[in-house]
Amino acid sequence: MGLIRDAESFRTYLVYSGLDTSIQAGDYQLSTAMSAIDIARELQDATPEEVTFVVLPGWRMEEIAASLSTSGLAITTEEFLAAAQNPPQEFDFLSDAETTEGFLYPDSYILPRETTADELVNELVRNFALRLSVDIRNGFEKQGLTIYQAVTLASMVQREAVQEEEQPLIASVYLNRFRIGMKLEADPTVQYAIGFNILQQTWWTNPLNLLDLQLNSPYNTYIYEGLPPAPIANPGLSALHAVALPAETTYHFFRAKCNNSGFHEFAETFEEHLQNACP
User: Fold this and answer.
1) In 3-state terms, what secondary structure has residue 92?
2) What one-character DSSP code corresponds to residue 101?
3) What is the pLDDT of residues 178-195, one digit of tens each?
4) Got the DSSP string for 182-235?
5) pTM for the whole thing?
6) Of 246, 249, 242, nearest in space to 266 by CA
7) Is residue 117 within a helix (H) or strand (E), and if so which, with residue range?
8) CA proximity to 148, closest of 242, 84, 227
9) pLDDT grade, residue 17 (50/70/90)?
10) For all residues of the chain together, what is the average pLDDT?
11) What is the pLDDT of residues 27-48, one digit of tens each?
12) CA 191 to CA 228: how far, in whole Å?
């Protein structure tokens, strides 16, 4: 490529300067405008200028923050949480939001190492906005939901559905309950209200006990009717689609199958629901 005009002189310089033993294998961006000395020093650091940062569906903002320490980004947990609790105002769906929870879109991102916390939050929210297609917006409206309500429901579906193919069914159950004023009774909302479980070392306490279900929190859908006040996690595209285009069912109940498959038994009535209990 013509980067090194005199290979022997370049090698002699490396040996003389002591840089020959510290050259690192890696990918570099070099140009013919660089001198041999510039190139020699560039080859001492193979640290890439960009990193890949992954956000998984169903993570809450604290889990995203915790993953930063091993991401290669120079953003602390505290910096990210502070930025995430200050929603960018250029997005209409965040106009009344107190945080960006629910809108930090799960995806794989290639970012400069020097990305700041505010820039990261903006990138995650911007990616969500790009996924908010006309079809999804129309679907939310057809269900009688605002974008914020729909994302809140999608976050519950994301956390509840172990198997992605069941998301439209679970969305239909919650919507059927919501429309008749029935309590949603969603375990993930209680888990969100509990917060970090020190003993289990997780943000999602499992299993829940009867005392947990009595926790007095606006997020506890076993106590309070309707949706929780805000999303409980960051849903992926399939969960958003499930709320926009739910299955058409008359189900009001579901419970985990007894075979530990992650699938659920669905029922129209409470009596049928009781019959689906594990022996």
Assistant:
1) helix
2) T
3) 999 999 999 999 999 999
4) -----HHHHHHHH--BTTTTBSS-SS--TTGGG---TT-TTTS-S--SS-SS--
5) 0.84
6) 249
7) helix 117-131
8) 227
9) confident
10) 92
11) 667 777 778 777 777 766 555 6
12) 12
Residue type, 108: S
**How many other CB atoms are there within 10 angstroms of residue 233's CB atom?**
29
Token pair recorded at residue 197: 């479980």
Mean pLDDT for 242-268 is 96
- Predicted confidence (pLDDT) at residue 21 exceeds the cutoff of 90: no
CB atoms within 10 A of CB 231: 28
Q: Are 265 and 254 in contact (CB under 8 A)?
A: yes
Task: Show me where the domains of the chain are located.
Answer: 7-42, 50-131, 145-275
| Distance separating alpha carbons of residues 8 and 173, to the nearest angstrom | 73
- Angstrom distance (rounded) from CA 253 to CA 264: 10
The residue assigned the tokens 């008749």 is 180
β-pairing verdict for 253-256 and 50-54: unpaired
Q: Residue 172 is encoded by which pair of tokens?
A: 């239909």
Give the whole-angstrom CA distance, residue 130 versus residue 246: 21
Q: Is 25's pLDDT higher than 90?
A: no
Q: How far apart are CA 152 and CA 221, in angstroms?
A: 12
